[in-house]
Amino acid sequence: MAKFEVKLPKMGESVAEATITSWLKQVGDSVELDEAIVEIATDKVDSEVPSEVEGTLVELLFEADSVVKVGDTIAIIETLGENENDSVKEVIAETTNEVIEKVENDVNQAIENTSIEKISPSGKFYSPLVRNIAETEGISMEQLEAIVGTGKDNRVTKNDILAYLESGKTEEQPVVKEVVIPKVSPQSTPEKKAMHVKATTPVSVNGGDEIIEMSRMGKLIAHHMVESAQTSAHVQSFIEVDVTNIVKWRDKVKDKFFAREGEKITYTPIFMQAVAKAIKEFPMINISVDGDKIIKRKNINLGMAAALADGNLIVPVIKNADQLNLVGITKAVNDLAFKARNGKLSPDDIQGGTYTVTNVGSFGSVFGTPIINQPQVAILALGAVRKVPAVIETPDGDFIGIRHKMFISHSYDHRVVNGALGGMFIKAIKESLEAWDVNAEF
Predict the structure, then answer these.
(1) Nearest to residue 18, comparing CAs of 115, 130, 119?
(2) Is the pLDDT of residue 193 over 50?
(3) What is 384-410 written as a DSSP string?
(4) pTM greater than the 0.70 cutoff
(5) DSSP letter, residue 104
(6) Which of 27, 30, 127, 156 could form a disulfide with 149 if both were Cys (CB 3.0 to 4.6 A apart)?
């Protein structure tokens, strides 16, 4: 029998440690090659680390919520190899690169900067998970340093900070607390880095009420939505679009499209293509704000809001959407939607978006006023496609007919996008969709 040391692999130049959320395998369990054995928590996703060998797990060297440095041995697996060193070297040579690539992809791109520093002024270290909870709950660095840690080297663990919240932190300031909203940009001036918001009075709970703990992702979404509303000056523009030609075209080609491409075509890829085209025409929609500077994005990466299995929403990203034809966009949309529904999205799938589209029409809504996905400056909502009576202009006069129409709603940041640009942008989308050739090939 040989013993293989499972080490936390290198996860990129900027990542030196990770937080163990839970062990997926326990001592005595059999482990297959590439089978996930441990889950690593970040402030955005939970990433699984696969085993590099087959064997039996005989020792766990860290408990859940422990912070582990890259290169540390986290577990021991007993293998069937005759020579420990030769077996280990052979397995590492075959699988290490693949494991490093997977974990780097899952973790390095998932960790966001927070307003809580990793190292406190007194020298205490705080993991990404602890810092994210502190930021979400409005815990200051001074309050964080007052928490007695039970982890390794007296580090504050997730359980420590959750216990602190449950033990009366809110009772100390029952009506008003100051929440420091994270800086929009690392280069912002001190006056623009933070803003103070008064929390509402605690909600009373009656005997028959049920208290439901928000999920970690739910808390993050709530925090980001409030932050966006406080950061951007939201303005909306609405426009009605006649998509009759698109409806007719899709009905005509959907079976042929599926037979040739093996993919179902919906309206979403057509809308995404129109949005990418409009962004090329109006590139100042594809920007971010960094303090007093504007960052004009080179790539057009379209985020598409998708539902997760637990009911939350997430925004996977179609990279370089303007470089894809309709078939390519369709495959990307279907692939990301499938991953979202089945919990298979990787951190890379949700990174790098420059503009977001959300389909509120899938829930029957005619239009909506979506909140901007920071640090972007605009978001488009697609309303439901409906049959409506409409005035049709012809050379022989006007008449009433049945048309397929929808509303598109454009929320944009009035700090940097004025009404003219915001209006012209959705007008360009409207014109592109209404000019669809019902006889077009795909």
Answers:
(1) 130
(2) no
(3) --EEEEEEEEETTEEEEEEEEEEEEEE
(4) no
(5) I
(6) 156
